[in-house]
Amino acid sequence: MNPRLKGKTVEELATALLEGEGFRILERRKVIRVGESQVAEVDILAEKDGEVYAVEVKSGRISVTDVRQAFTNARLLGYKPLIVCRGFTDKAAEATAKALGVEVKVFPDFYFFASPEELYRIIERAVYKVITDLSSARIEEIDLEALEVLKSIAFSRSWEEAAQKLEVKEEEFKRILGRLRRKGLITVRGDYDKVRAQALFLLSEFTLIRLLEFLTLEDVKGL
Predict the structure, then answer these.
(1) Between these two residues, 79 and 122, which has the higher pLDDT value?
(2) What is the mean pLDDT of residues 116-125?
């Protein structure tokens, strides 16, 4: 994710939140100068009830350092400090905001956004879960009947098509599938695609195991 695009997205959410509470947006990306030098930038300038606020927007929870930064930037501009974020990292940050008079507005829970690092971790956990779920089946329970059922599921696009490949009625197919579940071969729940994915995974593992069984020690050394 482009960091600048991410920043704009979070700022748009903050803008919507502020406007919903009666703020008027005056300026975005306000540059702070001391003499001829540019020393900082404030995300949003907003006005409400005749008071102008220097608004810092954070995609995560704020620390003591974030609070101090917002306070300093606001003082340099002569405005009131305000932060829009997802909450405080700890009690110290909350106490510092209160002591310095930094107003904090928290994004509602349904406002979801993530940094590239957070998004990577979310996807990584999801992938690990999928792999764990698919590999939880008891592959040693595969027999000839189970093998045929798994093939019919893996190479079909629906329950109906899988039943047709086995040349059985749908009710009988459900009973067969139930036996595979009791054996621990089909462990995932949900739509057909999930079960099909596990069937494909099991067939790949089963094929690899059988291949290794036929290889001699010399064959393995030569790989």
Answers:
(1) 79
(2) 72
**Rounded average pLDDT over 26-46:** 91
| Predicted local distance difference test score (pLDDT) of residue 114 | 57
List the 80-85 sheet strands across, edge first.
24-34, 37-48, 51-57, 80-85, 103-106
How many Å apart are CA 137 and CA 181, to the nearest integer?
Answer: 9
Residue bearing tokens 């764990």:
132
Domain boundary among 58, 79, 113: 113
Q: Is 81 helix (H, G, I), strand (E, B) or coil?
A: strand
List the one residue out of 98, 101, 114 whose CA is nearest residue 72.
101
> Residues 96, 129: one domain?
no
Q: Residue 144 belongs to what domain range? A: 117-222
Q: Is residue 18 located within the same domain as residue 104?
A: yes
Average pLDDT estimate for 75-88: 95
- DSSP at 25: E
